[in-house]
Design a protein that fits this description.
Layout (H helix, E strand, L loop, with lengths): L18 H5 L5 E5 L5 E5 L9 H5 L1 H10 L1
Antiparallel strand pairs: 1-2
Amino acid sequence: MKELPILYTRKEECCGCTACYAICPKNAISMIPDEEGFLYPSIDAEKCVRCGSCLKVCPIKAAVTVQNN
Ligand code: SF4
Ligand code: SF4
């Protein structure tokens, strides 16, 4: 079984756009509010099929990829 995708490790790496949540074909992602009410994605490891769509759609990960090129 492949690794569970890591959508963010620091909160700065997620703007809460919900794109990953919207694209997940398995409804494995929940948007959970932090203590300040900002939404962050949480992946249900039981539902996730490791398709990678959530990582591909994330605008912040796309920006990081461009920077690295
Ligand atoms: S890898 Fe696929 S199934 Fe898993 S959370 Fe991301 S979009 Fe959903
Ligand atoms: S697509 Fe990226 S920035 Fe948007 S909610 Fe998901 S992890 Fe956060």
